[in-house]
Design a protein that fits this description.
The complex is a heterodimer. By secondary structure, chain A is an all-alpha fold. Helix content of chain A is about 75%, strand content about 0%. Chain A has one domain. Helices cover about 40% and strands about 15% of the residues of chain B. The chains are: A mainly alpha, B alpha+beta.
Chain lengths: ~120, ~325
């Protein structure tokens, strides 16, 4: 089954536009500041819905190689990788670790804070 | 309110010999402190003051339960660094039990700007910016020169002890991040062994620095002061998060390492160890990432729910890219 339009991202986007265009001008002070944070959060959700599905399957494959398991759950795979780094079984000298870390962090920033100066500098380099 | 004003007036007269207080207004303080601004006649002319006291006017609980120090210790060390020519607000009254206001102290109000984005971008501070890194270095040299035997209630926090603290907080949140694990391993393997612990401000960065058109006017917020590796203060000021987008100026978004080190050494600081400064920059980047996770966790667990705390959880990734740039470029 496929859900009907609007997509989840489109629904969030409509809500964000309403808050930005109609509600923000009505507010001042603390609540205006909090609303700006809230609309930024909705923008994160929109980007996550758009970017994450493809990134997740790529990162799953990299994590399965790094951890040597075929688990499907990315969160569990990441937990396992974290443990291996902590135990020093996986280090920066391990094939693929550096690539995985950079790729996953660049995906996170593309979703969380695409205007972060370091992200833009790395992306443009 | 009336009782509070009367008590504060009496305390100011008793400790600082000022007239009755006027126009008290509450400032936005931290979670554990309350801040009030007011004016009073001081030897013939009106002066503005700031009261900083424990939230709700309670007594100090010893201070060592968390990382923050007691109000009295804070006030005493501000006076101690002032004697070393560190720009700080002058402390005029340290409250005691007789005042009935709880633990706290009163300082002379400083005018200026603490908001980093303004300091780093507004025309008003254009002349100050090139001076700041050297001035910060000089202020740190003064802080690190205070005789620690004169200070009470400060906790020794060398690198490995702090690392254990932040790792415990991170582990309790139970949301493992491979980049933070990598940083913890590196920080453990590269921890400097420093026998000669100094007074360390512990939070010397944009936001806690009062800046005027001519430069640094005051170093504020001493509650995280402790005994430690003096290079910690230098490294923390270099953490990318405090550059507020000006990433090519490593010192606070306003200066160079050379300027910071020169200011430090010219003011009598021991020769700077750049490797240790780098260590503490890595440490500070990890620390800010863990603090972002803590804020997020306080929201998720329902301890203090707010969209602001939720959102800051998605800023931990900023520190991850900074850590990778430092450790795995």
């Amino acid at each position: 089954m496929a859900m009907d339009r609007p997509t989840a991202a489109e629904l969030v986007s409509a809500t964000r536009d309403f808050l930005t265009d109609k509600i923000a001008p009505e507010l001042s002070g603390f609540n205006a500041f909090q609303l700006r944070i809230a609309t930024n959060v909705l923008a994160i959700v929109e980007r996550e819905l758009e970017i994450y599905p493809d990134a997740e399957s790529q990162e799953r494959a990299m994590l399965q190689t790094l951890t040597g398991t075929d688990n499907d759950d990315v969160k569990l795979l990441e937990r396992e990788l974290a443990q291996k780094i902590r135990d020093r079984d996986v280090t920066l000298k391990t094939d693929g670790l550096k690539d995985y870390l950079w790729q996953s962090v660049m995906t996170k920033l593309a979703i969380d804070q695409p205007r972060y100066a370091r992200y833009r500098a790395v992306k443009d380099s | 309110m009336e009782e509070f004003v009367a008590q504060l007036s009496a305390a100011m007269t008793r400790h600082a010999k000022t007239g009755p207080i006027e126009n008290p207004s509450q400032l936005s303080g931290g979670a554990s402190q309350e801040m009030w601004r007011f004016s009073a006649d001081d030897n013939g002319s009106s002066r503005d003051f700031v009261l900083r006291r424990r939230h709700g006017g309670v007594e100090d609980d010893g201070g060592l339960s968390g990382t923050a120090i007691t109000m009295r210790a804070e006030a005493e060390l501000i006076a101690a660094v002032e004697a070393k020519n560190v720009p700080v607000p002058r402390v005029r009254a340290i409250l005691d039990k007789q005042d009935g206001l709880g633990a706290g102290y009163v300082m002379e109000a400083l005018e200026g700007e603490t908001i980093a984005r303004k300091i780093l971008r507004d025309e008003e501070f254009a002349a100050a910016r090139p001076l700041l890194a050297e001035q910060c270095g000089a202020a740190m040299a003064g802080i690190h020169d205070v005789a620690i035997s004169s200070l009470d209630g400060l906790r020794p926090l060398p690198a490995l002890e702090q690392l254990a603290m932040y790792r415990e907080i991170y582990d309790a949140i139970d949301d493992p991040h491979p980049v933070f694990e990598l940083a913890f391993v590196w920080l453990e393997d590269n921890a400097p062994k420093v026998d000669d612990l100094k007074l360390v401000h512990g939070d010397f960065r944009n936001g806690n620095l009062m800046i005027g058109a001519e430069g640094l006017r005051g170093v504020l917020d001493w509650e995280l002061a402790h005994l430690g590796d003096p290079m910690e203060d230098l490294g923390w000021l270099c953490v990318t998060s405090w550059r507020f987008g000006e990433i090519d100026k490593p010192v606070g978004g306003f200066g160079t390492l050379d300027q910071l080190f020169k200011g430090y050494e010219d003011a009598g600081g021991t020769p700077v160890d750049p490797a240790r400064v780098h260590y503490w920059e890595v440490f500070g980047t990890m620390k800010w990432g863990v603090i972002c996770m803590m804020q997020m966790s306080a929201h998720i667990t329902g301890a203090t729910k707010s969209v602001e705390r939720a959102a800051i959880g998605r800023r931990a990734s900023e520190t991850e890219i900074d850590l990778l740039s430092l450790l795995a470029a």
